[in-house]
Amino acid sequence: MTKIKDNKLFALLLAVSSVIIVAGIILYALLGFNALADVPASKTVELRYNALVEIEDKEAALGKLCEDAFKANGLSYTDKTQSKLLDSNNLNEGNESMLVYTFSAGSEAKVQAAAEAIRTAVAADAAYADADVFVSWHTQTASRFYESAWRGAIALAVGAIVALAYVAIRYGVSCGVAGLVCCAHDALLVPAFFALTRIPVYAAAPLLYAAAAAFVSVVLWLLVCAKIKAKGKSGEAVTGELCILSASKESRKPMLFVALPFAAVVLLLGAVAVGGSALFVLPMLLSVACPLYSVNVIGPAVALPIRKAFDKKREEKKNRGAYVGKKKAEAET
Amino acid sequence: MSKIKSAFALVLSTVLILGVAFMCFVSFSYGVDKMHTFNSVLSMMAKDANLGTTLADGNNYVGGGYSAVYYPEGVISAQEYSENLAALKEVAEGEGASNDAVKEYNDYLEKYAPYPAENPAIYLEKETVYGEEGTAVSEEFEADFAAAKDILRARLDRVHVEGAKLEVRDGYTFRVTFPAYTGAQASLLNLFSYMGEFSLGYGSSADSATRLTFGEDEDIHDYVKGAHSRTSGSTAYVAVEFTRKGRAKIAEWTASAADSSTTLFFFVGDNAVIQLSASQQIDQSTLYISGSYTADTAQIVALTIDTALNTAQSGLSLSVGEVVRNRAGMGDLAFVLLLVASAVLFVGMTAFFFVRYRGLGFAHLYSSLAYLLIMILAVWGIPFLHLGVETFLAAMLGGALLSVCDVAVFESVRKEYAAGKTIASSVKAGYKRCFWTIFDLHIALLLLSFITYFIALTELSVFAFTLGLGVALSGLCSLAVSRFYWAACMSFASDKGKFCNFKREELEDD
Question: Cβ B441–A84 below 8 Å, yes or no?
Fold first, then answer.
């Protein structure tokens, strides 16, 4: 830590983080996140048919017919759903069903060609003569919602400020401010990373990643704070500065130990729960890694000058013979 | 704790935990021809649009969502067009077909334009969509369509359910998707399609109602401020707020209601969303309308009115087309796999405790089982919570926090024991040493979680609340439940240090 402070590496690291955060915010304002996981634009081929297909067990054959057509046109679908059409007034099931294939990639021309091929094949097959099979293709473009995004950002900011105000009351202003800086750094850096790298995410996921980063950040920083307080009480460290330095050094191992179960949660949920949920969970590893970095590097570096300034002020007060507080005076004697 | 008391406490809590675990995890069918089913709490729990599971009866599905296509006036599906055309063609080409039938067929052909021109997905009625003598979609239609999109987006945004989606389909239709746990789905589907201005009227029926007319430089905002929903006890209300002018107008309309009852109508476009029968004069600045609303239907009605009042107007009227039930967005397997992942994590963490602390692992096992089961019951019982990936994550993070706190306490006790204290005083001193750190940690995290929950919406709100719940339970389990089971389990051990895998520090003999 002393080394970091001396060679101004801290300033450089903070500058790098700031650049990433600012660039991320700008890119988010211009392009938003890469919400590809939510399939913002898709094409579908839909087959609507009556109960005869179901009664005569032709659904599988109809599905195979479609999949052959997609294969022939070099298409692979991302989702296949089969559902009954519902009455809009009471949502009761009707007699008609729908088979829907969704494509997130592939040209419109290919999808149209595949739909046409299915239409021709169905028309040529006498088995579907009375099934009223209607084949259509569609394009969908999703709209973005904004209210949840800005409300979420405000919620996190207010939550972090209040939580760290509590830390400031319990462990001192330097701990509160440094904790807030770490928390803000992590909660901003994580979504900024996703805005910059354009890694596909679910639209709501970056805010959750930011919340998880703030959560882990508070947990890890409180470990350091508890250590600083213990050092101060035990009288092991002579000055506040030394207190912070040794506490941050000694907290590294417990921090890793604490981060491990959080990382295990993310890794296991991501690795075992394959598919969409893995895409949702795995990027959250960054929400564990980022606080580890910030609490080790940024937190103590921010807490040091504040603690020094407070110590200096207290020393001056003491020299003037002013009242410094009963507990502090007792501790010093 | 005496051995008898410990045995009693352990047996009782084991039976209780097993019973609750059975309720939470096991589903089966029973009876003649498996007519009856017992569904586990986990399978019955509301799930978001991404997760879903079939209940034990094999028919009912919990999770996923609904989606519906809205067709603006003048836009029809390719299927509707081809079916109508085929019917007209049959008549026109039939034996002895009249000239009118042929004309009707030709007119129909002329009336609609395919969109896109090749392989059309929809058909556009030229007169409505192109305007008179137009050859392309008119600016007016485009503007109305954009306004309708804004209104639908505002409505879905404000209903505050995660997984809600609005898509523009084929350029000129909408597809609306929302999770199945949303209440009043049919009302939402139909009411959200209502476009047009909000207006008031009175009379005996909606069709013949006398509508509110405006003076010069006046509009509906001079009479009505907005609408919101409210629930008091088991009664839900739609509250319509009037301006002074609006209040006077309603009082004027209902002045003779005591003699002959009058019905007030609240319209969105041409659709009456509320019909209120008045049997006495209404003279209130905020009118609370109850009727047969649930909290969900009241919210949807209020939202429909408020967005019609306070967003850009659209001249389009929408009709509800194909409605389907969607299965889990992340696939049917996602829910099971998340359960498997959570189970692996739980077993892994518990195994660590048994390896490092031997018998003390039981204290953590009971404590984490209590945490897990209370979390499941809480998510099931709290109405606004539902199961999603974020709920799993928050619960697991809370579980990880419990494990971390237990390790911190156990290690602290280990140090005390190593220094030469008895196990009882080590436990006391260890807990005392860790108490304030654990307390502060949980208070700070509770503040972060619950404040985030109160301000945030949808996914983040659910994540924050579940996390807050997990943090609170983690604190309780770590400081109270683990300690209780520690005392209960340890009373059977003859060598307490060995039971906990604790060793005395070896002192060097000078």
Answer: no
